[in-house]
Amino acid sequence: MRKRFVFVAAISIVVGAAGAASAAPLNWEGTVTVIIADNPRVSVTGGGVATVNDSAGGVPAHLSTLRLAASHGNISGTETVFITDPDVAGNGVGAIIVDATLGTGIFLPISGGAASTGALVRDLMPMRGLAKICILSTSCTAYVALPLTAPTTVNGVPGTGTKGIGIGGFITAGGYGGIRLSLQAAPWTIKTTTVIDQITTTGGSRIFTSQTARGWAHAPASTTTSTAQTSGMVQLVTPGQIQTNLPLGSSDQMGGRIILFLHFIPEPGLLLLLGSGVVGLAVLGRRQLRG
Asked: How many other β-carbons are positioned within 10 Å of the β-carbon of residue 158?
């Protein structure tokens, strides 16, 4: 009888621990992927703790609100894209170095409150950092620095607002040899986005290609309901357009997309507790068989 009591108590501890994880904060691991034209993708990874469904929300449930704070985990890193596209490399670009850090933002509604293809009412989160467009060689001794975000300006004077990737707005940068780069940014979305690449050939003809990226929200069973739980996944996209006078002043445009992928994961402490509980159940079961 005593063994049976201990066995039931062990099950209660494990189940109780699993229930305790059903709170508004959810641990996540994630990836930010930067795609510029047809060049190789670059990705940086990270993780943290998100707040879902407002401070009083519970899980598992529909994911109506997703709050990410840079102070509670982040995705940050520096990656290099070596240019292999002959159309771009022929314009004197050897590499693009992206140094990016995810900011703080709120997104809603994700799933449940609206279809996963619906528009977000709250959709702003800056991607801070710098993109170096390396000229002539991959060593990047000469480059044009394009900030991913910048202060808004009023009559040429920096204001208190922010514009750029993940927010929207127009950023222009110049430098080496009179080269000019402009970035048309946009807020995050969970909808499908399309950007246009415009390439001007040596003979002056222009070739247009389109690139798409799609956002979505999935529960563990890959449905659009009850995303706010362990193994739920969310993908958000922010499109952008880069315009440059690199190819002899022809104002080519490169389409860019940044994809944010989040995967909700168990708390490390819960994993340890569950593991201990399973081991304890196995030991108790073995003892019962021996008895």
From this structure: 10
Task: Find the angle CA(222)-CA(45)-CA(66) to the nearest 5 degrees.
Answer: 50
Q: Could you tell me which residue, 72 or 111, shows the higher pLDDT? A: 72
Q: What is the rounded CA–CA span in Å between residue 150 and residue 132?
A: 15
**Rounded to 5 degrees, what angle do the CA atoms 54, 60, 66 make?**
35
Instruction: For residues 81 and 190, state if they share a domain.
Output: yes
Would you call 273 helix, strand, or coil by DSSP?
helix
Q: Which residues of 199-238 are buried (b: 16+ CB within 10 A; e: fewer)?
A: bbeeeeeeeeeebebebbbbbeeeebbbbbbbebbbbbbb
Three-class SS of residue 270?
helix
Residues 82 and 178 in one domain: yes
Look up the domain containing 236 and give its range. 24-265
In the DSSP assignment, the letter for residue 24 is S
When divided into structural domains, the chain yields a total of: 2
The CA angle 148-149-150, to the nearest 5 degrees, is 135
Q: What is the pLDDT of residues 188-206, one digit of tens each?
A: 999 889 998 877 666 767 7
Backbone angles phi, psi at 209, to 5 degrees: -130, 150
Cβ proximity of 102 and 43 under 8 Å? no
pLDDT tens for 65-79 read 999 999 999 999 999
Are residues 197 and 130 both part of a single domain? yes
* Same domain as 145, residue 3: no
Find, among 57, 68, 199, the residue nearest to 122 by Cα: 68
Examine the domain organization and report whether 141 and 47 are in the same domain. yes
The residue with tokens 């709250």 is: 122
In a shared domain, residues 196 and 278: no
144 contact partners, CB below 8 Å, separation of at least 6: 132, 133, 135, 173, 174, 175, 176, 179, 181
